[in-house]
Amino acid sequence: MSSEEFINKATDVANSARALSDEVASLASEASRLAVDTAGQSAGSPFIMGLTVLVLAVFVGYYVVWNVTPALHSPLMAVTNAISSVIIVGALIAAGPADVGFSEIMGFIAIVLAAVNIFGGFIVAQRMLQMFKKKQ
Amino acid sequence: MSSDLSALLYLAASVCFIMALRGLSHPTTSRQGNVFGIVGMVLAIGTTLMAPGVMSFGTILLGLLVGGAIGTVIALRIQMTALPQLVAAFHSLVGLAAVCVALATFYKPEAYGIGRVGDIQISSLIELAIGTAVGAITFTGSVVAFAKLQGLVSGAPLVFKMQHMLNAALGALVVVLLVLLCTTQEPVYLWILIAVTLLLGFLLILPIGGADMPVVVSMLNSYSGWAACGIGFTLQNNLLIITGALVGSSGAILSYIMCKAMNRSFISVILGGFGAEGEDGPAGSGGDDDRVVKSGSGDDAAFLMKNAGSVVIVPGYGMAVAQAQHTLREMVDLLKADGVNVRYAIHPVAGRMPGHMNVLLAEASVPYDEVLEMDEINRDFKSTDVVFVIGANDITNPAAKTDPKSPIYGMPILEVDQAQTVLFVKRGMSAGYAGVQNELFFRDNTMMLFGDAKQMCEKIVKSLEQL
């Protein structure tokens, strides 16, 4: 593939990604508007909202992951491992307060553990993906 | 920052993570996908840092730097053959981090707005306890998987009496503790819960043998996602829920693919000890090992392959152990220079983690378009002159198709028996992981090449250069 073609393809992909993310964002704002609208009437509990998100995300995950080519299953594990460390969000809030107590220490440990994973996971995935080359 | 804005930024991060997985649908888009993943993570961390309760930036930066440095060094230094244990080790960290976050939440729920100590909202508490349990199981389970893959403990299944009874009892105890914790809000029950689930994770993975590790590693991958998901529910954070669900379903799908490729049920893999369901008679195995096999030298193999029109290479875990992928590639280069059509065939469970062989071949600069999956190559074996099996066994055993009594009956195999000639690089005549003798070894058109995979490839390279 010539570099020009590659760039074109890449731009296409990027554009479609942008379109997709715009769509998702608009859907989300729609959803949150609806949620606000209905909150008064049915008081959808946070659990139900979370469950809705969970079920939809499982469906997205299902279809996206079946599309992953088997050759890249190892990098897939490295990447999913890295992104599951998004749990660092909880750790940051725990370690956030200025005072130091048990919770802050736990938060700090979790930050270190998750950071190992985030950096390690993405770098190992990148190393693997760099090696997959086409025939010259 | 307003909560709406941060929710939107979290949403953007979620979309980035979805795009990261989507990128992996093809090698050309995969690197871009990885960039999406990194951007998503930066967004997630950046947004959280701007949350009103987060003030101790020094400590946080220190934690990020320490963890980041460790992760970077490990990731840059790790040998590609050691990937499965690295991934297992990383999973254990996610599990432990989930437990730490859950503890932090339990002792300071007001930081997350879910109540006060001793008076946490009941739904949040249930989610927190489940997240903790899954996290703890992931932690010790991954540690055992790591130890087995690294060779620190025997890869053989460790089975003992009453094992399943014990696990079931512990499982029931976990449920009891969950109820006690949620009704009394006493910290002591959370600590006991953590201790019991740590033990449970340990016991669950111990009986599972080495070659079932692809399933285990995928399963733990899935668990680490569900742990994140559980914590996400507690913190009412959609980003954690979405990401956890993505990772959880990804791991579950990989486990399913691996089980299917071994024709085993997920339950039987988890219960451990291969053949637990067919112990009454591993028919067709052993007993007849005194039959004669044809064995050959590196020179014979070189001669056969050089004069062949087409060669298919079937790599297995033995290639990884011997680190033979680079020498193998040299051998293939010499063959290709002689006009031989060479391709590689990968069985889904070859190696110790999903896609293990593909990464090793890629490391040896084998172009990915020469590496074919089982379904793509199986019909070509009929018209193949020579199949070169290096470090694989069970996945080529025709008994899986012909012998209904065999423990591996029904497992999809690479149909190498249909080729003109089959060369097996193997250290000895021992049976494969399933404990079944491979009928193929005794056929007239099979030649055994006894020796270490790497040394055998070196010998073949040498004679190819002389021929």
Descriptive report:
The complex is a heterodimer of chains A (136) and B (467). By secondary structure, chain A is an all-alpha fold. Chain A folds into 2 domains: 1-42; 69-135. Chain A contains 5 helices and no strands. Chain A is extended, with a radius of gyration of 20 Å. In chain A, 43% of the residues are buried. Chain B has 467 residues and is an alpha/beta fold. Chain B is built from 17 helices and 8 strands. Chain B has a 6-stranded parallel β-sheet. A two-stranded antiparallel sheet of chain B has the order 1-2. Chain B starts with a helix and ends with a helix. The model of chain B is unreliable at 275-287 (pLDDT under 50). Classes of the chains: A mainly alpha (136), B alpha/beta (467). The interface between A and B is large, with 95 and 124 residues.
Features:
heterodimer; A: 136 residues; mainly alpha; 5 helices; extended; B: 467 residues; alpha/beta; six-stranded parallel beta sheet; two-stranded antiparallel ribbon; elongated
| Lateral strand order in the biggest sheet of chain B | 5-4-3-6-7-8
Radius of gyration of chain A: 20 Å
- Beta content of chain A comes to under 5%
- Total discrete domains of chain A: 2
Percent strand of chain B equals 5-15%
Biggest interface between protein chains, with counts per chain?
A: A-B, 95 and 124 residues
GO molecular function (chain A): NADP binding; proton-translocating NAD(P)+ transhydrogenase activity
Membrane topology (chain A): Multi-pass membrane protein
Domain NAD(P) transhydrogenase alpha subunit C-terminal (chain A): 51-134
Subcellular location (chain A): Cell inner membrane
Quick overview of this protein structure:
Chain A: Its main location: membrane. Chain A: Keywords: Cell inner membrane, Cell membrane, Membrane, NAD, NADP, Translocase, Transmembrane, Transmembrane helix. The complex is a heterodimer of chains A (136) and B (467). Chain A is 82% helix and 0% strand.
Topology at a glance:
The complex is a heterodimer of chains A (136) and B (467).
Chain A: H1 3-42, H2 46-66, H3 73-84, H4 88-95, H5 102-131
Helix pairs in contact in A: 3-5, 4-5
Chain B: H1 3-23, H2 27-49, H3 57-77, H4 83-107, E1 115-116, E2 119-120, H5 122-150, H6 163-184, H7 187-205, H8 213-235, H9 238-262, H10 266-271, H11 298-306, E3 310-315, H12 317-322, H13 325-337, E4 341-346, H14 356-363, E5 371-373, H15 374-377, E6 386-390, H16 399-402, E7 421-426, E8 446-450, H17 453-466
Helix pairs in contact in B: 1-2, 1-9, 4-5, 4-8, 5-6, 5-7, 5-8, 6-7, 8-9, 11-17, 13-17
